[in-house]
Amino acid sequence: MAVISVFVAYPIVSSFILSFQDWNLVGTKEWTGFTNYQRLSKDSIFKDALRNTAYFSFGSIPGKILLALFLALLLNKRVFGLKAFRTIYFLPVVCSSVAAALMWQWLYDTNFGFLNFLLRKIGLGPVPWITSDKWAMPSVIAVSVWKDVGYNMVIFLASLQDVPAEIYEAAKIDGAGRWTMFRYITLPLISPATLFVTIMSVISSFRVFDVTTVLTGGGPGTATISLVQYIYKCAFQFFRMGYASAVAYVLFLIVLGFTILQMRFARRWVHY
Amino acid sequence: MALKKLEGETMGWQILVHVILIVGAILMFGPFLPVISASLKSYSELMLRPFAIIPKKFLWGNYLKVFQEVPFLLYIWNTVKVSFLCTVGVLASSSMAAYAFARLRFPGRNLLFLIYLATMMVPGQVTLVPVFILMRNFGLIDTHASLILPMWGLTAAYGTFLLRQFFLTIPRDLEEAAILDGCGYFGRFTRIILPLSKPALATLGIFTLLSMWNNYLYPLVFLNSPEKRTLTLGLAMFRGDVDVQWNLLMAGTILSICPMVIAFLAAQRYFVEGITLTGLKG
């Protein structure tokens, strides 16, 4: 309890206060009111970071959830080699983001990368995966989906295994087809898991840092810089603690807003 | 037995499911293959024939070289130390807090629990700057304690929530029998609740272990000395060298993943069960 108040509660309050101050970690703190926030509204890197984080979230979350659900549905059946499949799909989750980013940096390399080698084999030109504005973010999203889909899959799987088989039996007797059963039995019964997965995915995608930092360094230019990366830069490279806190608070409010919105909206589609 | 169950499904459907699963598995495991292959090649072979999956000569020595070129053993030791201490701390504190929330009655219990849950919503990165300043004031910058302590705070709420859900499913009758035998709170906790909660504890343990093992932002911010680096930081810095030896870097990457793969395989039996029973799903 004490640990939580010192390392979670206190910092929340403290970073709020800090966001109204100017401080370079060495000099004295200076109260500047809303200046940091005003500056943010004109800061083009901040806007890029915001846009990239939104792009990343909307690009990766649907893939992470739908693919995970699809895989979980397939693996919930009696399938030959079930355990092997489950382990393979979970393997990238176990991999650290840094390791994943390093691996993919090698795979994505324009000249020596394996992906472009495969493309050349089928007669297509090399794609500058992580070195062009256009491709960088989709490439980052692909790595992130690859890495996280197994985690969501396991949670869906756990939930699917709780659905009583008798319900399906009864529906079958009533002549329900596959789609009807999925739509009116499976989906409602696993909706709490869907909510959990969605909220967690939203929170984690707004925190993206490792993949963008190691894989692309936020580049090319600012094409893949994320909010957290910008917080890190402001605080520990430019030593503008107050400004970094202001960015952090914008991030916090966005995450909080989305979470509350999802909880609200959830009452309509989640069945407990 | 299995065949009988399969009868409900048509053969074609079964084949389709397997084809999709195999394609998926190739996509998931595929990226590891060129990486493993690269890790076994010599640097010159890697440059000349980057795409041959099977190396001309398997240089298992690359894996040894990783230990010679960079203080890899030290990185592993640092990571093990930090992850282990963090996991033990989270398991101990969240299981005790969860027990209190699940079984004890005290004033303000519900409010406290709500506050606990609220802290789960806060991304650790948001509080990074104040935590950094706090650590600096404690004089803990560039120590491993600066990685462990904040994680206790950040993971404990999640852990408490997860374990509380699980503890609530353990029948009270068991504890009442123990009370009759003269067992105190602590005895009931250690002798009844904990042994019955292995799946949930394993799930929380592996999640905490994973997140610590793979943590990059905290070491990046809190550590300065090269000899304190953790694996993720070490690997990322290794890449920063002017002349990247991709074969060694890939060997190091594979090495860094292996311990977690083993830990996951060992805990897998409890894993799905733990998630099912804790009601983590909702």
Automatic annotation (TrEMBL), chain A:
Organism: Thermatribacter velox
Record SUPFAM superfamilies: MetI-like
Lineage: Bacteria, Pseudomonadati, Atribacterota, Atribacteria, Atribacterales
Pfam families registered for this protein in UniProt: BPD_transp_1
The ABC transmembrane type-1 domain, residue ranges: 50-262
Membrane spanning stretches: 54-75, 87-107, 184-204, 211-232, 238-261
Family membership noted in the UniProt record: Belongs to the binding-protein-dependent transport system permease family.
The entry's keywords: Cell membrane, Membrane, Transmembrane, Transmembrane helix, Transport
Source superkingdom: Bacteria
Protein topology in the membrane: Multi-pass membrane protein
Protein name from the UniProt record: Sugar ABC transporter permease
Main location as per UniProt: membrane
PROSITE patterns: ABC_TM1 (PS50928)
Signal peptide: none
Cellular localization per UniProt: Cell membrane
UniProt cross-references to InterPro entries, sorted A to Z: ABC_transporter_permease, MetI-like, MetI-like_sf
From TrEMBL, chain B:
Domain of life: Bacteria
Location(s) in or outside the cell: Cell membrane
Topology versus the membrane: Multi-pass membrane protein
Keyword NADP listed: no
Keywords: Cell membrane, Membrane, Transmembrane, Transmembrane helix, Transport
Gene3D superfamilies for the chain: MetI-like
Domain ABC transmembrane type-1: 76-267
Entry-linked InterPro entries: MetI-like, MetI-like_sf
Source species of the chain: Thermatribacter velox
Listed name of the protein: Carbohydrate ABC transporter permease
